[in-house]
């Protein structure tokens, strides 16, 4: 197959062309060909390659984004629909080797199949050229897919907001105390009390301390009439 | 904090000690200290670093393991309980900076907290020394945690087994045909017919073509009295 264009589009020239061929071989084709290698193992690897490259770039691009926001941005970028769109923009579907049954059933245009092939291709780039090559390829491909930092949704970090408000109004911070836990080990709940410098106290209850704190802070913000952007 | 021992145990000497310190700072401590950096963003990154390093090593160690098996091996290695055990064996808990509330509640010995700190530490190694440094550290730490190739559970790849059996008994392969689909788009089911060289036909039905094929193959194996290792 002539893949010069494809290699150009992904910014990687394969040394081991067999890796690229395997990445483009759907199991339905491999099965027809008496068990030639298919792309499923490469997909397993490529999924992790993509995850790390996107995580690292997100980490660097958004130095102030909390972990939850980074996770959401990453999910958007690597979800099946997004990867399938990328695969189409790379003309990957023209290069995928499919079994006859899968072909007849329109497999060449199935999101899942396209996304898998793209992941497999990134796994192949990683094996062929190492992490640096995979990163280069992925950053190129995702170059214009990142959200603008200014466009990121405001995160609901109630605790930080309550701290700001308390500093501003009372020149002091709220204090969080784990007031107790209850329930059996596997469904433990945590009770956290947020006490404002005024003495007003708000209790958050949740299955994690972090969420209980957030909840306590949210209650505090509400009592202070700070809009919580719900 | 004196972390010479720790750095030795993870086979990485930090150039940017601040990264290591951030990795060992739980949010409960950072919150007490007026929002110093905590380890949550590093944990986000480290999770992906770990995932890729373990995926790559699994891919190399088990060249014949199908994707599903690689996924299971990886899950075992990186699940919270496993990472917490590793954190303990590294004496990580002695180095973690905790808030007072979390400390009083025994947070220093919580699996989730320990696993997160270990992930964050691997994220810090990655930022400090690059992918090669993270891989070296992770492969060292997981050195003796891998299953032996011989100990891997036999995978239930009915299709491959049916092909072997058919070749052996009938000198020909079974043929798989997608016989049809039904149901609305979001809960579509696929019907796959596996036809043996003898003409006997077995229908698998599933929400994915792959699983329908496996199911059809399983029925074929059963009809041929091949034990399916259930």
Automatic annotation (TrEMBL), chains A, B:
Ranges of residues in domain RNase III: 3-130
Gene3D superfamilies named in the record: 3.30.160.20, Ribonuclease III domain (1.10.1520.10)
Family annotation (InterPro entries): dsRBD_dom, RNase_III, RNase_III_dom, RNase_III_sf
Reported cofactor(s): Mg(2+)
Subcellular location: Cytoplasm
Pfam family, one: dsrm
SUPFAM superfamilies: dsRNA-binding domain-like, RNase III domain-like
Enzyme superclass (EC): hydrolase
Chief location bin: cytoplasm
Keywords: Cytoplasm, Endonuclease, Hydrolase, Magnesium, Metal-binding, mRNA processing, Nuclease, RNA-binding, rRNA processing, rRNA-binding, tRNA processing
Alphabetical list of SMART domains matching this protein: DSRM, RIBOc
Catalytic activity: Endonucleolytic cleavage to 5'-phosphomonoester
Entry binding sites for Mg(2+): 43, 116, 119
Active site, UniProt feature: 47, 119
Domain DRBM: 157-226
One example of a Gene Ontology biological process annotation: tRNA processing
HAMAP family in UniProt: RNase_III
Function recorded in the entry: Digests double-stranded RNA. Involved in the processing of primary rRNA transcript to yield the immediate precursors to the large and small rRNAs (23S and 16S). Processes some mRNAs, and tRNAs when they are encoded in the rRNA operon. Processes pre-crRNA and tracrRNA of type II CRISPR loci if present in the organism.
Annotated family: Belongs to the ribonuclease III family.
Subunit architecture: Homodimer.
Protein name (Swiss-Prot/TrEMBL): Ribonuclease 3
